[in-house]
Amino acid sequence: MKPFGYVRAGSLREAAAAYAAHPDPRYLGGGTNLVDLMKLGVETPATLIDVSRLPLDAVEERPGGGLRIGATARNSDVAAHPLVRTHHPLVSRALLAGASGQLRNIATIGGNLLQRTRCPYFQDVSKACNKRLPGTGCAALEGVHREHAVLGHSAHCIATHPSDLAVALAALDADIELYGGDGSGGTDDDGDGDGDGTRTVAATDFHRLPGDHPERDTVIRPGELVTAVLLPAPAPGAVSLYRKVRDRASYAFALASVAAVLDLDPATGRVRHVALALGGLAHRPWRATTAERALTGAVPDADTVRRAVDAELDRARPLRDNAHKVVLARNLARDALTTLTTLAATARRAP
Amino acid sequence: MPPHTALGTATVRAEGPDKLSGAARYAADHTPPGCAYAVPVPATVPHGRVTAVDTVAALRLPGVLAVLTPHDALRLGPSDDATLQILQDTAVPHRGWCVALAIADTPEAAQAAAQAVRVDYAAEPHDVLLREDHPDARTPEEAGGFPAHRERGDPDAALAAAPVRIERIYTVPPLHNHPMEPHAATALWDAATGRLTVYDSSQGAGTVRTALASLFDLPAEHVTVVSEHVGGGFGCKGTPRPHVVLAVMAARHTGRPVKLVLPRRQLAATVGHRAPTLQRIGLGARRDGTLTAYTHTVTTHTSRVGEFVEPAAVPGRVMYAVPDSRTTHRVVALDVPTPSWMRAPGETPGMYALESAMDELADELGMDPIELRIRNEPAVEPDSGRPFSSRHLVECLREGADRFGWAALRTPRRDGPLLCGVGVAAATYPVWVAASSARAHARPDGSYLVEIDATDLGTGARTVLTQVAADALGVPLASVTAAIGSSDLPAALLAGGSAGTASWGWAVHDACTALAAALARHRGPLPPEGLSASADTTEQAKQKPPYARHAFGAHFAEVRVDTVTGEVRVRRMLGVYAAGRILNPTTARSQFVGGMIMGLGMALTEHSTVDPVHGDFVECDLASYHVPVHADVPDIEAHWIDEDDPHLNPTGGKGIGEIGIVGVAAAIGNAVSHATGRRLRELPLTPDRILAALG
Fold this sequence. Notes:
The complex is a heterodimer of chains A (351) and B (695). Chain A is an alpha+beta fold. Chain A has helices spanning 12-21, 34-39, 75-80, 82-87, 89-96, 101-106, 109-114, 139-142, 165-171, 203-206, 289-295, 302-313, 324-349, and strands at 5-8, 25-28, 47-50, 59-61, 67-70, 175-180, 198-202, 224-231, 239-245, 256-264, 271-279, 286-287.
């Protein structure tokens, strides 16, 4: 591992200032991914700015409904938090589907969103990787890519994003709150004019597709920090689920996962709101907008669900080794929607 | 006659408190004053040679002591194992082969130096993919020490004439041992006295000493190897490995003690793997299930460094009465790391294939798979014609069926999206015993010490040896301690082949019996230095018994297959074993259950994928090489039947370290087939394969 400097930030302003003042800096949260990558020589920062002790670990109700989850809150604390479990059990389920108990105890919410792909070629500095070293090529294309992307990949990168939480946030229309950036100590371009140096980005826009720049996982700007995840108030009567399929029962990344939210009109049985996000299939959580459009306003019977999901996954472009992911995603999405339809009907009948 | 109370009694591990409190010292826990650290540099081409090693940048880093390269490393003496001839020439036989060694004051500096070494290669075309029709496939002389080819009668004609026959191919991928403790060694070279001391994570300190003495041209008595505590081996620490040679090289070069802990990511290419096997099996039978033909052709790979042939067709020579049979191996040398021993080599992949084929034949015949096996129970060992010293496979199958509730589960069930089914498979593992020596010592304070260069890999071997000693001496267990895991102790077999307890126990038994006799003759108080007696079983172990000696067992599994996701979950597993006398129920159960869990991993989650382009194994950490986690492991029961076999050794045990894994993958695969009505013949049974099979 390359020697590096270490700075512990006491406040957001300090963190941003340290980022601007030090060479080749990286923010450090729980370190469960960044430190591993440093040991492998994939990440070689000159300075670590430890933001894990910033006072950003609260989970609180927002004025007007919804939740604010601080970026340094630990995954296990958030998963177990009564507000999260009550308002957005989908978030708890997604968090608990990830990593192991030990990792969840140290990993932060902000770090979870910024973790890097587990593509084995990205993690091996002896092999070509455009994400690690732009312009060197993609060794996974010709190598073994059973676990790689089937949607939205490019000739430059076929990696998937590993976060479970991000898939849930995409389905919940969450926002990501960011602070600082470009060493300015705050951009404050969220239009609220409150001068607090933050902006917000929709979770669905936060992670990118690889395109020509697979080295950029997200739209975060240099020096910007994730400060919170903002969740809207849940629709009364809406039901949700998270389901993840993997090669072993726990402590493995998703072959495919699904986060789904469904709200049915009790009078007509038609879909008032549906959100479907797929994980493990692309460089970012895949919000299935085509399927959602087909379902909104419709009665979600088996045929409608099948057509909607097929319309979405017709866009899949599987690689040599991973056609199974399309089958898996189709099965998962259909099953999730069918299960939620039954749940929603049951919930409606309940007193 | 002293009361026999210790053997057969459940006894917790003698060193348990030391392990729990951290007092137990493993190889990397030894940090002598002035200790330096070494990190190997692995080759990044799959085939070729090193043309230049640029060490300038590495040597400029703070704390770096040296970088050894193929051009300047110490020349080594001979070794039986060519994988130990490291840094001796510029050839790169596979990706991951060690091409340089960085040595520094701290582990971090050594790692940084290893990353800073620049190696230039002349790469050559490589070939890493095993296939049945590979033009270089040939029949070797032997496979795992057995004849590679055995044939009786006319199996092809018998198969062609069989009223019912199946011919199938089963595929087992490369597998890795991945013990919890990575390979590590701490080497101390005393130039003044010419003495070498090495703390090594090894299954046999004496074996490592022999190799090091030859490689470094030292008298064996000048070399001490200590493996007091070992965090698992499963075969990959059964022979000396490159890390210990490199640690000694570095200590010789720098004159300082040197510690080398292999990074987990380097294990896959450095310390062996279970070679992949493509197994073509033919079974012919009469309509009543009587086998008439058996052919088993194993195609596997080895490296270009040394030959190791996974003996997967060998267990078929033991199992079933069939007059016409051929069991044979074909091997292809590829540009891959050298395969080696992994828990129940041969039996594990071979019995997956054979016991899956038996299940398919039972399906074809419409016969209960247990009845099919019982129908073909042999009177003598089929391949040799020798009588069995004891064989209770049928009893294992019947008792297992009773305990498992087999008869009531013969109809596959559907529970919503879940398909439920059950499967059974037989297990076998040979009984080995090898010469060992031991010393027993009585102290004036009434305590006893037994000394033997045995190794405890976490199995409970140390504890069982104290039980053997206590009974042979006729004294309380608490008065006996065992000193093991050092080449300075009386020489003994390494921990392998499930033969440790039998071999060591025999020597300990004999030494303690001799000591008890000496104590009986002794009059008056013991002298201050106590009394000692030694034993060496070389003569006894040489005698070849007229019996075929094997342990047997039966495995049962119940699975649920999710038709939406393709996930297979094992609901419960049960094993019944006939393995001679069980010496310590606590540690024995741990061995059986551990073996079954490893078999579950083989069935469902574990595989190493050869990257055709880069020539290495893709899964090289414990996040990607999926050993089962707690959530994968169901309710597991291990039982054994009382087996009194007088033709073994004084302890009456057959060895239990490996049989627990044998046949488990077949039992699970057979259960998946029972549940789904679809037969998968390639491991592991991951969701992608299940979904494809379900269509």
